[in-house]
Design brief:
Largest sheet of chain B: none
Strand content of chain A: under 5%
Shape of chain A: elongated
Shape of chain B: rod-shaped
Number of strands of chain A: 0
Distance between the termini of chain A: 27 Å
Helix content of chain A: over 70%
Order of helices and strands of chain B: H
Oligomer: heterodimer
């Protein structure tokens, strides 16, 4: 099955039928998507700004990263569930949308970065990690999630 | 420096460069459009 065939199948699925016929449900899914994005952005910002020594300097960065990561996972699940429903409603349209694919690429990079690099690194005692490495990881993390959010909004304007 | 830190630093720097280039290209495109439209 090609990517286009998958999007055509998605466009004809029962999920798409609900998304297209019930505007209220679609709007609720959009609201959940935005609220989840706000939660995810909050957890990313609080962790990354703490790693950069900008906020909450009196709280151990290990504690901030640990607590924020739990909610990051909750937000990510809610984003992907609501996002899948939203895409089903406009599957044929987003397939040809450059901003959608930019967002998906950034999202994939962000997820891989968090679960395979950032999180394993931050599970160690932060005082044993070279400070500039921590700050570089924080800047990269902020940039990738900024790009996910910005491309998400871009879809609505393209 | 442990290998994990080296990998994290290398990937992070590559990502930072990539996203800066990406957004610079977007802003450059907007500025080019403004230049062509309004001189």
């Amino acid at each position: 099955m090609t990517v286009l065939a998958f999007f055509e199948w998605l466009d004809a699925s029962p999920l798409a039928a609900v998304a297209k016929a019930y505007g209220g449900i679609y709007a609720a899914a959009q609201s959940l998507h935005l609220a989840s994005l706000a939660l995810l952005g909050g957890t990313v910002l609080v962790t990354d700004l703490r790693l950069m020594n900008i906020v909450m300097r009196d709280v151990p960065s290990e504690m901030v990263a640990e607590q924020a990561h739990k909610w990051f996972k909750v937000a990510l699940c809610a984003i992907m569930a609501s996002g899948a429903f939203m895409v089903a409603g406009v599957a044929q349209k987003v397939y040809y949308n450059e901003a959608y694919w930019a967002k998906m690429a950034a999202l994939l990079i962000g997820i891989l970065f968090v679960f395979f690099l950032k999180r394993p690194l931050l599970q160690r005692d932060h005082s044993t990690i070279t400070p500039w490495v921590l700050k570089t990881v924080a800047v990269a993390s902020t940039l990738v999630w900024f790009t996910v959010a910005a491309c998400g909004r871009w879809i609505g304007f393209s | 420096m442990p290998t994990r830190e080296k990998v994290a630093a290398g990937v992070s720097i590559a990502m930072i460069v990539m996203f800066i280039v990406y957004w610079a290209a977007q802003i450059g495109g907007a500025l080019e459009m403004l230049r062509m439209a309004y001189g």
